[in-house]
Amino acid sequence: MSAMQADKVLDCSGLLCPMPVIKTSKAIQEIAVGQVLKMIATDPGAPADMEAWAKQTGHELLASEQENGKFVFYIRRTR
Amino acid sequence: MAEERRRRLALIASKGTLDWAYPPFILASTAAALGWEVQVFFTFYGLLLLRPDYNPAVSPLGNPAMPMKMPFGPNGFQEINWPIPVALQALPGFQAMATTLMKMTFKNKNVPSIEELRQMCIDLGVKLIGCQMTMDVFGFTKEDFIPEVEVGGAATFLQFAADADVSLFI
Q1: Chain A within 8 Å of B112 (Cβ-Cβ)?
Q2: Interchain contact A42–B (C-beta under 8 A)
Q3: Opening angle at CA B117, ends B111 and B119, nearest 5
Q4: CB-CB under 8 Å, A58 with B34
Q5: Distance (Å, whole) CA B37 – CA B119
Q6: How far B128 CA lies from chain A's nearest CA (Å)?
Q7: The pTM is what?
Q8: Which one, of A23, A46, A57, lies nearest residue B124 by Cα?
């Protein structure tokens, strides 16, 4: 539904806690400040976890949505 | 933001079975991924989590809340919670079987193994501290554990925990 542009895509489909959070933390370091990471997950805990992750790390959660039964997150690296 | 003090997580890991091995490593790796400073103090049976050849088991005995399910077969079969009498759970080999089944379930569900989680913690900079007193009591030396382990006592843990934002005994 969103036409948001991502500079990097991380697919965490099939992974459970804590892997999506850990992989996202690694992947965000691999893009430049200001760039956007798209993360895809199937873990039902992911929306709450990603919101908490963004609050803790200070990175900006631009969008948290559902697409074809999967959770999709757009995150901007802020620092 | 850069000058902000890092949050701290202080954990005590006191149990050595497969089921209880997960919480400290999951919390420690997640907190470290969030940028927190993390120390885990391993004491009593928790010390075994730091062995290079750690081979955890789980016992259904005295654990009535443990679901007894099969990790294979059709969905309907996997959903059956088998009513296994306690006397049967005490038989030789039952614990090994229950451990194998739980490990299989974790693998099927894509949950990383304890060794993988432990390595992740190390890579993320989590400090792993072995309890010196327990080592003495159980007859271990520092060489019996993975090389990343540091040794300390209660004062070491308390000093770190005094300034921790979250402290848990597991």
Answers
A1: yes
A2: no
A3: 145
A4: no
A5: 16
A6: 18
A7: 0.87
A8: A23
In this complex, do A18 and B110 lie within 8 Å of one another by their Cβ atoms? no
In whole angstroms, give the CA distance from residue B164 to residue B10.
6
User: Looking at this predicted complex, what is its ipTM?
Assistant: 0.81
* Whole-number Å distance between alpha carbons of A71 and B157: 39
Q: How many CB atoms lie within 10 A of CB B87?
A: 7
Shortest CA distance from A16: residue in chain B: B111
- Whether A12 is catalytic is no
Tell me the two tokens of residue B157.
Answer: 């843990």
Residues A78/A59, Cβ–Cβ less than 8 Å: yes
Domain A8-76 - what CATH class? alpha beta
Tokens of residue A43, six digits: 């873990």
Structural domains present in chain B: 8-55+112-169 (3.40.1260.10)
Q: Mean pLDDT over residues B159-167, rounded? A: 96
Give the active site residue among A4, A9, A16, A17: A17
Q: Rounded distance, CA A58 to CA B2, Å?
A: 11
Sequence ranges of the domains in chain A: 8-76
Each residue's pLDDT tens digit in chain A (79 positions)?
A: 556 899 999 999 999 989 999 999 999 999 999 999 999 999 999 999 999 999 999 999 999 999 989 999 999 999 9
Decide if A45 contacts A31 (C-beta within 8 A): no
The mean pLDDT value of chain B amounts to 92
For CA atoms B54, B57, B63, B68, the dihedral sign is: positive
3-state DSSP assignment of residue B53: coil
Q: pLDDT tens digits for B72-110? A: 889 899 889 888 888 888 889 989 999 999 999 889 888
